[in-house]
Design a protein that fits this description.
The protein is built from 2 helices and 11 strands; from the N terminus they run αββββαβββββββ. By secondary structure, it is mainly beta. It has one domain (19-48, 60-182): Jelly Rolls, CATH 2.60.120.260. Strands 1, 3, 4, 6, 9 and 11 form a 6-stranded antiparallel β-sheet that branches. A 5-stranded antiparallel β-sheet has the order 2-5-10-7-8, with no helix packed on it. A hairpin with a 4-residue loop joins β7 (115-124) and β8. It is globular and about 50 Å long. The two termini are 27 Å apart. The relative contact order is 0.26.
Length: 183
Amino acid sequence: MRLVFLLFFFWMASAAADGVRYPGSMCRVWSGPGAHLYFSSLVANGLPAKADPSETTCPPPIAGGCPPCASTPSCRNDPKYIVRADCPVPKSFPDNGTENVTVDVIDRHDHFNVECYLTSALWNPALNTFSQNSVKLQSSGKSNAIQPLVFPPQLPAGPASHWYISCALPPDSAIVSYYVREK
């Protein structure tokens, strides 16, 4: 029995050291016009067609509705068309920090970058306190290539912290995958 426990312990330790790659489809949209899945990537929906004053009805809000802007260029730079999504960071050892977290993104927007935060958060209901550690990274401009956002090692906000990645995706931009290696 002791040998089984030791083998399990070393397997868990090596799994944490090796890291895990998660598909972008694990992320969940919490704000914005929506997203779709494309080969397990999470892709922000494109811009809706410009509003036509002669239209009496608009598509449903989930499809973007009628944009308040009169032209596609002004819609393109309207922050309300940015999708916000959270990606869970399942950790075997939540009391430990991260050694390497990388988010692979594609930024297809002319003006806005993809922005991602790696956050460790802790809510203590007994003391009614909230603590968090957060690091922000962003893409470096429009490209059809994957841009890896590589976060530095990060310590937890406290014991049993909750970990997640939160990203803002301009229209047609995507989270392809993310990689997490624990300390």
